[in-house]
Amino acid sequence: MESVLGRYRNLIILVGVLFLQVLGLAVQVKRSADAENTRLIRIWAVSAITPFERGLVWVQNGCGNLWHNYFYLRGVRAENRQLREQIEQMRLEQVRLSDDAAQAHRLQALLAFKEQFVSRTVAAQVIGSSGSDLSRIIYIDKGENDGLRRDLAVITADGIVGKILQVFPTVSQVLLINDQSSGVGAILEKSRLQGVLRGTPNGEVMLERVMSDEQVAAGEPVLTSGGDQVFPKGLPVGTVMKVGTGKDLFLNVKIKPAANLSKLEEVLVVTEKQERQSAAQDTERMRAADILAQRLPSVPDKPPTPEASAAAKPGNAATGAGGATSSSVPHSKPSTVPGPQGGTAKVQGPVGSTKPTGSGITPAGTAPGTSTPAGSHAAGSGAARTATVPGQPATGEVSNTAAPKSSSDPVAKTGSSKKAAGSKPEASQPDSSGTQTPPPPQPNPQPPAAEDSPH
Amino acid sequence: MQITYTSGEQVEVYRFSVPVTVGVPLLALFLQAFVPRRFPLFSYLDLPLLVTIFFAMARRSPISGLLTGAVIGLVQDALGHHHIGLFGIAKTVVGFLASSLGVKLDVENAGARLLVTLGFYLVHGVVYFTVARGMVNMALNWSWGRSILAGLANAVLGVMLYFVLDKFKQRT
Q1: Which member of A56, A222, A419, B130 has the greatest number of CB atoms within 10 A?
Q2: Residues 6+ apart with CB under 8 A from A4
Q3: B25 at interface of A, judged by CB pairs closer than 8 A
Q4: Nearest by CB to B96, which of A14, A56, A201?
Q5: SS3 category, A193
Q6: Could you report the per-residue pLDDT of A270-307, keeping only the tens digit for each?
Q7: Is B96 on the interface with A (CB under 8 A)?
Q8: What CATH number does domain B12-167 carry, 1.10.1760, 3.30.2020, 2.60.220, 1.10.3470?
Q9: What are the two backbone dihedrals, phi and then psi, of residue A14, each rounded to the nearest 5 degrees?
Q10: A104-147, pLDDT tens digit by residue?
């Protein structure tokens, strides 16, 4: 027996060591996918390696800064001039964009859209990687001590990078988006198709779950959808590189990541996201009509007429809507679409939007005399179409959506306006016999003030 | 190219000082984690594997070889995010085979080292692939072309590295 053990000692030890490792592997597979049960080994390994990496990065940065900041200053003057010109151009652009952004915020506030803001980030430096192309992770020099925790989004100025997988006291492990175990909710910017971003074993990034009957064009930008609860919505992910047919009725959409994942140096960890109402709530509440008035070409406002002033008084149900509009709403060109019964209906609201979002649905068949305020249209969703059919009776229950700036909550204000007894759909429905009866001519008690209202 | 069959008495058995025994694998692991950040193609190289092969062949002790491979592999696993043991098992097997081969063959010349390193790289890949697919159910694609190319690159680097590491050998 002893001779057998002595003779096969090496082999027995090999089998024993392999058995132990296989057993450990089996336990890990059996327990869970996360690495909590092997955390101690990982901490030891990371603690042994990362101090060297941190030190080398420090030396490297020091040398680089010394060279670039004190010695290699060739071309700095020209570059400075060029950058100044660029700043001037960007300032002009910023003015335009800030106007657009402010308007968007106000409209979002009116619609009670919640926005996600990246309210706090922690800058971190990449100090290492796993070293294997089978495990696409990086290490950053911030950890638990800096307030990081698992599943935080990691981004750069160019686009998303990944999410934090493991946190150690002074370093963190980041799973890159091109790892095959990664998954990010993404949306195509133009076509608004949603999918799941996954890495491949080769380190490519693919957008999955896009149906094969959809049209996806190469070069289309891809953004985060926010559906994964890790990345805030709207962050750049990359662009579509190649579209091919995959299996199971899905497309193979290859994405070129916006961030250069193979050469990351500094990253930002999103430590706090805020979901809140638009900033417009903090400032003066504005009606959509006023917002649009700032944007659309218009003639100067009419001075308030006595009729309009009277109509604006509360308690006047029939004019509660119209009173707010005639004098204050700027003029714009209402677009016309073919209405029911061969007539035309004035489209009140952004054309192209078709779905009312539920709040503030204005009676569709509002008679001209009741002149639905433009503010309520935009508040309805910015999308709700209100067709004003000339000659229709003002039978609808006039909602209080038009209460000009009196209600504290524009959303709540519009929420009570759903019901309209004589709204247009009913008025324009064909009768039970299938024939359409023309509506009886009605006297027009007031000039169609709705024509003056924007959109 | 010369691969000479030698008896157990003929082959030289080397040992290494403690700083080299600990420092060289640590340095290899450090470089493997650090350099691909700057040079992404470096991730195709496997410095810890080359160090495992070198120590195993120089010591010519199967037990020492497999233990060296197991430790280096486990640390390499711990630096990644997959289950711990994948690299460990693969490098244990390679360490054992390399030291067993070192007992039988004299692989001191460059050509022999090139071939041996290429062979062990492929063995390492096959074992890793088998365990990862069979036990962990990882989605991996095996490519012979890529494996052979990466193996050749590792073999070339290994030959150069072995000549550097030969300086640290101590005769028993």
Answers
A1: A222
A2: none
A3: no
A4: A14
A5: coil
A6: 988 776 655 554 555 556 666 566 666 655 555 655 55
A7: yes
A8: 1.10.1760
A9: -60, -50
A10: 877 777 776 666 667 788 999 998 888 887 888 999 999 999 98
> Is A128–B33 a contact, with Cβ atoms under 8 angstroms apart?
yes
Element containing residue A86 per DSSP (H, E): helix A76-110
- Mode of pairing for the β-strands spanning A183-188 and A221-224: antiparallel
How many other CB atoms are there within 10 angstroms of residue A291's CB atom? 23
Q: pTM here?
A: 0.62
Spatial strand order of the sheet with A387-388 comes to A335-338, A344-347, A387-388
Q: What ranges in A32-75 are assigned the alpha helix state H? A: 39-66
What is the identity of the amino acid at A11?
L
B80 contacts chain A (CB < 8 A): yes
The conformation of residue A408, written as its DSSP 8-state character, comes to: S
- Amino acid symbol at A24: G
> Which residues of chain A form CATH 2.40.10.340?
114-277
Q: Could you give the C-alpha distances from A427 to A214, A368, A431, A451, B166, in angstroms and in order?
A: 38, 14, 10, 20, 95
Q: Contact A121/A146 with Cβ under 8 angstroms?
A: no
As a whole number of angstroms, the distance between CA B146 and CA A51 comes to: 33
Residues of B in Cβ contact (< 8 Å) with A139: 33
| Domain at A114-277, CATH homologous superfamily | Rod shape-determining protein MreC, domain 1 (2.40.10.340)
Distance, CA of B7 to CA of A66 (rounded, Å)? 58
- Please give, rounded to a whole number of angstroms, the shortest distance from the CA of A428 to a CA of chain B: 59
